[in-house]
From TrEMBL:
This is Glucose/arabinose dehydrogenase, beta-propeller fold. InterPro entries: 6-blade_b-propeller_TolB-like, Glc/Sorbosone_DH, Quinoprot_gluc/sorb_DH_b-prop. Keywords: Signal. Residues 54-379 form the Glucose/Sorbosone dehydrogenase domain. The lineage of its organism: Bacteria, Pseudomonadati, Pseudomonadota, Alphaproteobacteria, Sphingomonadales. Residues 1-23 form the signal peptide. It comes from the Bacteria.
Length: 390
């Protein structure tokens, strides 16, 4: 269905530069790179509202078109076009909608230009009241004002399906060498994050067809452990490769202690044994510093920001931000910038975006930054386009 374009509404957003705390808890001073991005009045970008969606969760741009695929949590896939038109995409799998569950991430095959393969993550129902995340793929076919996913097939399932509707994770990213990485939350069950017989609380690595690569760290052990790349995660809701091919992920801490992690093959990130946050009932969790055998985060947030979406900027529109990581904040609404320097990370800026929860961040083909607001149940989340203020 072709919808009428939504008029763009320009909005200027003020920046709050250099006011966050760094990973050691000290006040972070504004950096030279931060100063270069700001205009005289302190506003480094202008924001246009270019569309609205119902509970949007993820987006990805289609090369050579300017179009983007956008998922809505209730189980709808949209094809957004720069002229403002929005098309419903048919052929999307049935989803188990509720709590944190529904239609999730969307990414393109590295060879999309030749095979048109689109990957979707979603939550599917199991026996009784159980559910679990899954990933499938199919070919995107567009014909005038219609679009569909042909031949959609599930290539991977979270194991096991459990009760509850939280912490599915199911963010995806393709590595430069064409492997598919998928995050798995602990499903609010804690211990599975350290259990090698489950994918829960892990980041898994697969081939583009869902098979186990022979060079995975535990490939020879078989079972779901063979899929495992790293473990000890709580609820990873951001996943991205930097220009050097390093994989970064962020995850929500329990009560505070949200993390940005450099993902290294075979490492254990410690949850629920260690965390820089505590249990919601106030019980203490030892900090990472007490157990050096676990991989510590490169940055963490206390108080929490509730991170969602992760993009590492590589465009030319904001040259001073090239190489920076951008994270959406839902608990502390806004856009968070983190400077990456090799294998290290330094928190830099927090930008208030009208006090809205941010679910997803993507770089457009023009180098602009595109942001999806969370929207929440029963409300609309705006698609925002950020361009330089001057």
């Amino acid at each position: 269905m072709r919808l009428l374009p939504i008029a763009a509404l320009p909005v200027l957003i003020a920046a709050c530069s250099g006011g966050d705390v760094n990973a050691t808890g000290n006040q972070a001073a504004p950096t030279a790179r931060t100063a270069q991005t700001a205009s005289a009045d302190g506003k480094p970008f202008r924001t246009e509202v270019i569309a609205q969606f119902a509970e949007p969760w993820a987006m990805t741009f289609i090369p050579g078109t300017g179009n983007a695929l956008i998922t809505e949590k209730k189980g709808v896939l949209k094809l957004w076009q720069p002229d403002g038109a929005v098309i419903d995409v048919a052929g999307v799998p049935k989803v188990a909608y509720g709590g944190q569950g529904g239609l999730g991430d969307v990414v393109l095959h590295p060879d999309f230009a030749s095979n048109n393969l689109v990957y979707l993550s979603f939550v599917e129902a199991g026996e009784g009241s159980t559910s679990g995340a899954a990933v499938g793929r199919g070919k995107l076919v567009t014909d005038g004002n219609t679009a569909r996913i042909d031949g959609f097939q599930v290539i991977w399932r979270q194991a096991p399906k459990v009760e509850g509707q939280g912490h599915y994770g199911h963010r995806m990213a393709f590595s430069p060498d064409g492997h598919l990485f998928i995050t798995n939350g602990d499903r609010q069950k804690f211990d599975p994050a350290q259990d090698d017989a489950q994918t829960l609380g892990k980041i898994v690595r697969l081939t583009d067809s869902g098979a186990v690569p022979a060079d995975n760290p535990y490939a020879s052990e078989g079972g779901v452990k063979a899929q495992q790349w790293t473990k000890g995660h709580r609820n990873p809701l951001g996943l991205a490769f930097d220009a050097q091919g390093r994989l970064w992920s962020h995850e929500m801490g329990p009560a505070h202690g949200d993390e940005l992690n450099l993902i290294v093959q075979g490492k254990n990130y410690g949850y629920p044994i260690v965390s820089n946050g505590n249990h919601y009932d106030g019980r203490d969790i030892p900090d990472h510093s007490t157990r050096p055998e676990f991989e510590a985060p490169k940055a963490y947030w206390d108080p929490a920001i509730s991170p969602a979406g992760l993009m590492i900027y590589s465009g030319d529109m904001f040259p001073a931000w090239k190489g920076s990581a951008f994270i959406g904040g839902m608990n502390k609404p806004g856009l968070v910038r983190v400077e990456l320097n090799g294998t290290e990370a330094q928190k830099a800026d927090v930008f208030d975006l009208d006090g809205q929860r941010i679910r997803e961040i993507e770089q457009g083909p023009d180098g602009a930054i595109y942001i999806l607001e969370d929207g929440g149940r029963g409300s609309k989340g705006r698609l925002l386009k950020l361009t330089p203020a001057q």
